[in-house]
Amino acid sequence: MKTMKSSVTYAIFPAIVLCFSSGLFAQVGIGTNTPDASSALEVVSANNNTGVLFPRMTTVQRDAISNPAKGLLIYNTTTNTFDYNSGTGASPNWISLTTGTSSRRARFSNTDTTTDLNSSTFTLIPLFDTTEFNDDSALYQINDTFGITVTEAGRYKVILNIRLLGVNSSGSTEQDTNVLAGIIANSTRVSATSMGYISFQNGNTEATINITDIINLAANDVVGVATIGEGNTGTVTHAFSGDSVFIIEKLD
Q1: Does residue 186 share a domain with residue 163?
Q2: SS3 of 231, please?
Q3: What is the pLDDT along the chain (252 residues), one digit of tens a residue?
Q4: Phi/psi of residue 31, each to 5°?
Q5: Which pTM value belongs to this model?
Q6: Is residue 229 within 8 Å of residue 110, measured between CB atoms?
Q7: Which structural domain range is residue 149 located in?
């Protein structure tokens, strides 16, 4: 019985000392008795051949965290990135930590060459028929040929190039068409606009629309491209398959 009492005493004593030590010192060291004075926690690998594992989870599991603290850090196994909450517990805003060499870009192009882009109302156009590349399919999710869902809030660079072709109607409506385009998020224009004018005279049957812009998007915004005619009513289409492209890149 005496031996058991000693064992219990020896087991409890270090725990008591540790509790008092934690209260007396502002720093905690793991693998070191002298944590840096500027740190609350310092972890040292005994042989410099091990690391620290943060909680690992999917995007769905991350989003299910209840009231996450500002600055909370996890490793996202869906995107293979460290994510931290830059928002509040009530309104989380998860930001992925990326290196200067990482890429979160996507490029899409058309196959459709029959849809009239010279519509009388601002209308979404088919421009996402082909995914030429997608660095992060969890971030850029294809809805249909008219748009994508962007699953993370942030600032994005967008590049749009549309090659237009005026269709000869053997009349006069194909002359002086003027198609205006813009980038849309949830039915609201979020980019600058650009126009492509086709005079249909002296062999002028084509034009291009070019937009490069930086836009803010919310999580799960649906992004697409819309056009409207601001000139004559002749039919204007994508000139050739693959010649109209949409590029998007997450900046922060």
Answers
A1: yes
A2: coil
A3: 444 444 444 444 454 444 444 445 568 889 888 888 888 888 998 888 899 999 999 999 999 999 999 999 999 998 888 999 999 999 999 888 865 556 799 999 999 999 999 999 999 999 999 999 999 998 999 999 999 999 999 999 999 999 999 999 877 888 999 999 999 999 999 999 999 999 998 989 999 999 999 999 999 999 999 999 999 999 999 999 999 999 999 998
A4: 85, 5
A5: 0.65
A6: no
A7: 105-168+176-250
